[in-house]
Structure formats: structure tokens, C-alpha cells
Amino acid sequence: MGRGRARGRRQGPLGACALAAVVALVSGCEPPVDFYRPGEGGPDEPVVGLGGPAPYVRPGTERPRAADPPVVPAGGRVYAATGPGMIAPGARSMPARLYVADGRGIEVIDPRTLRQAGRVGAGAAAARVVPSWDMRRLWIADTVHDVLVPVWARTGRRGRPVPAVDPAGLYFTPDGRTALVAAGRPRRIEVRDPRTMRPRASVPLPCAAADGDFTLAGTSLVMSCTSARALVRVDVPGRRVAGTVRLPPGARPGDVRLSPDGGTFFVADAANGGVWAVDARTFAPRGFVRTAPGARGLAISRDARRLFVAGGGTLATVDFRTRRVTARWPLPGGGDAIPGGVSSDGRALWLAGTEGLVYAVSTRTGRVLRRARLRGRPAALCVHPQPGRYSLGGTGLYR
User: pTM of this prediction?
Assistant: First the structure.
């Protein structure tokens, strides 16, 4: 008994020392694993419930977090983060490239030398090339084989195709949590995971839509239906169509862009040769600006003061404040021109001609600065990366 008590007394100080060491370690050092309360933290983050029986919780068991508030630029300026050279930190190290969908695949071109820097997905019938929300990947929309193909922008490596029926357009909500795929058949918006493109839900549409842009708060996507001469407003959180508006007879709406103050949507109309101004709040047409026959694609200058309207062999510029045409410049070839995006410094607008040309025109004078002839006929053009905090998808949609 005496020896047992003596042994217990000898172990007591050792236990106290061990406890003191643990306390000192916890209080004086950073833990090797981030600690969260049970149910908090992201599903891909290491989670430790203090006092819990296991070091990690099972994926998918975390409590859903409240949705982030709408992402609105400071001062209400829609394009406050898309000025010259304002490329997101994660995309600054990426080489500047032109991605041209020519019906057989994606031709990758160095904009400085106009030499081919690679080719992606030979044989794929690519209709669009869309940057992901974080700009790390490009998504190729193949409407013939009904797939979306991911391509890593830094390496050019192609990923596994994801089934998507007739993916006419691809967009990302400003918070980066949702991808929206515009399907032509059946007519709907597919709500998908932005990274894996796994389907979550779908929103039936009254007409087939492809081109669109988000409202200032990013909660609604306004899309054009060319054959139905209509615009559709999709409530993204509510997953429903919140409104429609029909343009006058004969209109053929195409590309859509939100004005810098967030109050007006400008909609290209190839049939009438100009752009419609649609009130973003009341969703009613507020006028028409005639630019040139065949107006098809839209792009915004780096200073967000001018709207470029391309198509029908002409590039016109419209002043956002006065809503007047300030210049009309002829384009090479005289055919349809597909805008791909404005250069990072804002000095050039890149376009693709359906006759097989890719070229850059001066945003100041309209003079052709560079041009290259391709073997195929371009169906889409994407300039990547471009200034902005994130990509909204589409063609040249950044904020």
C-alpha cells in the first residue's frame, strides 16, 4: 500500500508537467489544422469540433450558410473593376491569348505575334468559349455533341466533357455560386454547379434564349430571344421567369449589355440596324439608337463611356451618356463581325469575321491594327484574360 501511494505521488508531478506542456503548446503556437465549431467552415476545409469524437466531420453534413449579399460595385458603377490593366490577381500570370472557335476546335493565338500557340479539342464543334467565374478555366460549348468541355487556361489541358443539351449560352452569377446554361431544346435555363457543371435545377423559358447580362445587383439575368423578338428576365434566386417584353415587329434581338449606371439594358438588333434601350427597373423599351445595318455584337470600352456595336461590315460607337453615335468605321471584309473583347489596355477591340479573319481595331480611330487569316470560319472569339474581379460568362462579361 505504501509503495502504491508513493508511486502515485511520483506520477502526480509528471501528469501536471504534461498538462502544462499541452496548455503552453495550445496557447503559444498556431494549430496545424484550422479549428471551426461543428457545422461551420466549407465542405472542403479541415474541420475539428472541439470536444468532438472525430477530427473531421463528414462531407455534406455542415449547416447551410446564409447567402452572401448581392455583389454591387462601389458607387453603383457596374464596370468599376474592369478598367485598363485591372486583371484579377489569379489571372495576372496567365498568358494573353485569343481563343477562336472555328467549327473544328479551338485555335489558340498569341495576340502579339498572331501565331498559333496551340489547339484544343480538334474535331469538336465549338460554338462558344466562355471563361469560368474565377477565370482559371475556359468552357467550350459544343451544341452539336451536346457537351460542355473544360479547358485549363494556364496549361491548355482539356478536361472531361459534361453532358449539356444544346448549350447555347453559359453564365455565372456574381457571387460565383451558380452556373446558368441556356438550352435551346427544350427551352430552359439549367441551374448547375459552377465547378463540376452538375445539374441542380431548371427554369422553363417561354422562348429560346442565348445572349444575356445580369442586373446591377446580380439577382436577375436578362436574355434575348431572337426568333421571338423578346427579352426574358430570369429571377435567379427564385428560379422563375420574372417578366418578358416583346420588341416591335421585325426586331431580331441579339447581344445584351447593361449600362455603366445599371439603369438600362442595351440590346443589339440586326434587323433594324441598331440597339434598343430597355429600362432595367420597369423592363420597358425606352428608345432605339440606329447604328448600322446588321448590328449584332456589343462590347464596352475600358473607360465604360462607349458602347461598341459590330456587325454588317461596320463598327459603330455609342456614347452612353448622350445615346448618340459618335463614330462609324468600316470593317475588313464587309461581313458579319463577332466581338471577342477589348484588350487589357483598352486600345484595341478584337473581332472575328465569318469569312475567316481575326483582327484588332483601334478603339480610338477604328484603324485595323493587326489581322490574321484562319483556315476555318470563326463561330466565336474569346480574349483571355480580361480586366475584372470575375467573369459572368457570355462573351466579354466581366465586373
Answer: 0.81
